[in-house]
Amino acid sequence: MSITLGPVGSLQHLTTRRAADAAVPATLANLANTVDERRYVCPDALSRRLDQLLDDTTDIRLLLLSGGGGSGKSAALREAARRGERGGYHVVALDGRQMTAAGARLTDILGDLPAGGLLIIIDELGHLGARAQALGRVLASLPGETRVVAAAPTHPEGWVPADLAPLVATLRMPALDAGQSDELLRRHGVTEAAARTVVTEWACGLPLALVLGAAAWVEHGAAAIEPGGAVLAATAGDLVGQVSGLALDQLDSELLEVAAVAGWVDEAMLADVLPERDGQASLALLSSYSFVERSGAGLTLHPLVAHAVAERVRHDGMQVPGLVLRIASHLRDRARAGDTRALHQLAGLSEDPRLRAGMAPAPTATLYGDDVRPGEADEIGSWLPEGLAAAVRPWVDPPTPETWRPPAQVVRHTDGRLLAIALALPLSDAVSLVRTEDPRAELVAPLIDYAERHGISDRAVVSPFQLLAPGAAEEDPNVVPLRNGNALRRCRVPNPRYDLVNEFGWTDGDRTIMTDCGYVEVPELRRLVGGEEVRSWVADVGPCGLVGLLFRSVAAEHGIDLPEPRTQGELVLAALDDFHDDAALATLPCAPLGHETEHAADRVRTWVRRTILAALHDQPDLAALIEQRYLEPAATHDQVMRSTFLSRATYFRRIRTAREVVATTADRVSAPV
Predict the structure, then answer these.
(1) Residue 24: per-residue pLDDT
(2) How far apart are CA 490 and CA 544, in angstroms?
(3) What is the pLDDT of residues 355-396, one digit of tens each?
């Protein structure tokens, strides 16, 4: 059966056509279908799923495709229809938008179908709303040889009847890798290799962006296709319009600005960065945009859309520095509490290439973090000098149930290849290995001894090894920051100050990165392990820790010179003394930047109240005394003494005790700022 293509890549309901062996007249529709097929590049994962669906020997009958706007869902449906047609299926194509507009009954639409094998293609399923449930029931009544492919940004919950669950396969549309992107651009007429490289990097694997980039090259020529150039910026605006149905100036620019700069947002961030708005409602509005992807409990923009939004915002003269400082303040607080995602986002706000290279990977469609898998120890050992393989193997071999431990973190290509591995653990964990004579202690014992001799055990991280596969850094520079970030995520030190790292199997490029990031080799730790030389490096990022280093870097880039670090105890006592002075509170290092003075002061007051509650929850008399003296406006020592009937000596002894407990608690839970 032949297929009719609808407008803008959508599919329309097909009626029964003449037999496939009959002569088909040459029409514009036939030509369009031929051109579409010639230009299409099918992702490997999709190709496997379609082959599985159309294979008579499998149980799969329904393939559900999902993905954001521009990810290639409609093109994938057209490819499915072509494959089904070649396989002898009767292809019936439905568009949820048109079905909703027409208001037709689903039983009427699917009630008069040809006999034999059916392939039903359903685009924009989400537009059916509650009718999707009815569609699922109708599909369940169709003959057993029927095949179904349905696409939607997110499929309605439970639209497929439970009794069809064993017949369902799902696929989130994958981004195209560099090779596939290059091939797609070739098929769209981009003949210059340099132009294909620029458009591939700009498009980040989004099929629609590649098509628009190719069109820009055809229209404007190679000279206009430059990274960050006006043509690609304008094309990115066109992309936003196509995937959202709206121009940028019709969208909520304030929300998009936050999402574009931060990279990832959730309700807490929106409520904090935009305090005058409702965080829950803002997140719901942002999630309704088709170019927004859900990531865990939050949302991200497609990298290309984020770039377009950021450029548009800067062009319109919005106060980007103030926004960056507000976001950085929020991320600082989260990172100090142990949120490693926030730490990487904070690094991404910095313009310092050294910090970004070590901690902030750019968006990538081909790399991801993963656990090391059983059986990969030999491959990792092949990256090392021969004598060191035995020392590394205990770290990467699968642990026994009695010695369970978190697996080492690797960076893996989407084709399954290992590109990097790293391990980081708290100094206390490394010490326990030495005490139990664990075979892994051979690599970390000298580092522990050095840390103890130099008194740097506070917030110290030990990295037994950081390795790259041969040629991995040249293949994709994102390997290094991804590797470092994955290792730090598992080390359980929220705001590390010291990092002690073993060196073996490194290149000159690795050493340059370490030096740029502030690491210094310790000559006294050069030693032989397994007959091979092992060196060690140490970094001290300062009393504020890694979080403080990143935050201060971002602040300095926007003209804010923060005062010398002060301990949390010193800060909470200073805030108590000036509790009702907005200007004084807003200038403390713990205050958020970029906000109005009143809001910044209120945030500090909230922190002070929480600290008092945590410190004095079991001493209500002291808590009440602190509250009466410092939290009540215009209170004096004499007033509180009279109201509590305490002698001067008792009163000041209790006040001093309460202040010491509060300061000690603040110091115990966090590093200086």
Answers:
(1) 54
(2) 21
(3) 877 777 766 667 888 888 888 888 998 998 888 988 998 888
- Sheet order of strands, 90-95 included: 90-95, 118-123, 147-152, 62-66, 168-172
How close are the terminal C-alpha atoms of the chain, in Å?
Answer: 69
Residue 20 pLDDT greater than 60, yes or no:
no
Query: Any residues with CB less than 8 A from the CB of 192 and at least 6 apart, and which?
Result: 217, 222
pLDDT higher at 222 or 582: 582
What is the distance between the alpha carbons of residues 531 and 546, in angstroms, rounded to a whole number?
A: 35
3-class SS of residue 456: coil
- Asked if residue 168 has pLDDT above 60, the reply is yes
pTM for the model: 0.74
In one letter, which amino acid is 559? G
Give long-range contacts, CB 8 A cutoff, 24+ apart: 244-253. 244/69, 244/289, 244/290, 244/291, 245/290, 248/308, 248/309, 248/312, 251/289, 252/285, 252/286, 253/309, 253/312, 253/313, 253/316, 253/318
The C-alpha angle 127, 133, 139, rounded to 5 degrees, equals 100
H/E element holding 233?
A: helix 230-244
Please give the Cα distance from 529 to 633 (Å, whole number): 65
Distance CA(52)–CA(59), nearest Å, equals 9
Lowest mean pLDDT among 12-16, 410-414, 421-425, 629-633: 12-16
Contacts of 521 (CB under 8 A, 6+ apart): 503, 535, 536, 537
Q: Say whether pLDDT at 652 is over 70.
A: yes
* 196/193 Cα distance (integer angstroms): 5
Residue 103 has pLDDT above 60, yes or no: no
Angle subtended at Cα 374 by Cα 371 and Cα 378, rounded to the nearest 5 degrees: 105
Element (H, E) at 44: helix 44-54
568-589 mean pLDDT: 95
Give the whole-angstrom CA distance, residue 13 versus residue 120: 9
162, amino acid identity: A
- Continuous segment of H or E residues that includes residue 449: helix 441-453
The DSSP result for 303-371, as a single string, is HHHHHHHHHHHHHTT--HHHHHHHHHHHHHHHHHTT-HHHHHHHHHH---HHHHHHH-PPP-SSEEEEE
Coil, strand or helix at 255: helix
Say if residues 574 and 588 touch (Cβ distance below 8 Å): yes
Burial of 23 (0-12, 13-18, 19+ CB in 10 A): exposed
CA dist., res. 668 & res. 106, Å (int): 64
Rounded CA separation 141/193 (Å): 52
Task: Report the alpha-carbon distance of residue 222 to residue 234 in Å, rounded.
Answer: 15
CA distance 154 to 603: 37
What is the DSSP code (8-state) at residue 296?
A: T
Chain center to CA of 309: 18
Secondary structure of 183-224 in HEC code, one letter for each residue: HHHHHCCCCCHHHHHHHHHHHCCCHHHHHHHHHHHHHHCHHH
